[in-house]
Amino acid sequence: MLKKIMVALAVLISSGTAFGAHPLITDDTGTQGKGKFQLEVNSEFTKEKEQQYNSDEDKWETKKETGGELATVLSYGITDNVDIVLGFPYQWKKTKIDGVVTTEPTGQGDGISDMSLEVKWKFYEKDGLSFALKPGITLPSGDENKGLGNGKMSYGLVFITTKEIAPFAFHVNLAYTNNEYKLQADKDANRKGIWHASVASEVEVIKDLKAVANIGIERNQDKTSDTHPAFILGGLIYSISENVAIDFGIKGGLNKPETDLTFLTGIAFKF
């Protein structure tokens, strides 16, 4: 694990996967300000367990998946209300069936996933209410044969609302992503158009410490399922100084398609 982290940090020093105020999945309308940077290093560790039927051997099997992601996010303020955000995640995954590591290429492995490039534009702000749009693309930098990317460029758009009512802040995201796939197997198995809806809140419980909560749902990528993954998340953000913050969160699945349990940690630097 330490080797993976060191390799990823060396590679990911200039970009990352875009999040809101980590560990939140839902983004906020905040921008960095003209000429200012923010660098985040975020990680997540996932656990999933399910029973599946093996028709070839006529038996039930226990499938366990563990994995994670280490990513950075580099944001730069082009103007006071417009940011450009670069993303470059590093992922790893291992799948065991009845205790035996699977030999399927998409069931294990690690490497760089698809990079992302986004622009956040906060186009309205008044009396604590603000709106933003965030269009973006993903670039096929991951190995699609290992399940680390789509193999083709994809695109999406997020509409973001933030309402501040001290000491609270509330955020709403409505998003749509159009995924393009290189492999025919991925085209046959996955939906292209994915919608997402989520709500988050923040509250400063004591000086420099915020409690955060998040709930959301998005369209199931699997064509064979009409049950859409839903999650709930809770966490803390602590500001060590004006320019450095650390965070921790736990995300749980509210239904079967969503990952059972995810632990999230991160650190952010402003300069």
How many discrete domains?
1
Arithmetic mean pLDDT? 88
The CATH architecture comes to: Beta Barrel
- Within CATH, the superfamily carries the name monomeric porin ompg
β-strand number: 15
Order of helices and strands: HEEEEEEEEEEHEEEEE
* CATH class division: Mainly Beta
| Overall SS class | mainly beta
Shape: globular
Helix content: under 10%
Description:
There is one protein chain. The chain is mostly beta strands. The chain has a single domain (2-270), classed as Porin (Beta Barrel). 6% of the residues lie in helices and 60% in strands. It contains 2 helices and 15 strands. A 12-stranded antiparallel β-barrel has the order 1-2-3-7-8-9-10-11-12-13-14-15. A hairpin with a 2-residue loop joins strand 7 and strand 8. The longest helix has 10 residues, at 2-11.
Q: Helix and strand layout, with pairings?
A:
Layout: H1 2-11, E1 37-54, E2 59-79, E3 82-87, E4 90-97, E5 100-101, E6 108-112, E7 115-126, E8 129-139, E9 154-165, E10 168-178, H2 184-189, E11 193-206, E12 209-218, E13 230-241, E14 244-253, E15 261-270
Antiparallel strand pairs: 1-2, 1-15, 2-3, 2-4, 3-7, 4-5, 4-6, 7-8, 8-9, 9-10, 10-11, 11-12, 12-13, 13-14, 14-15
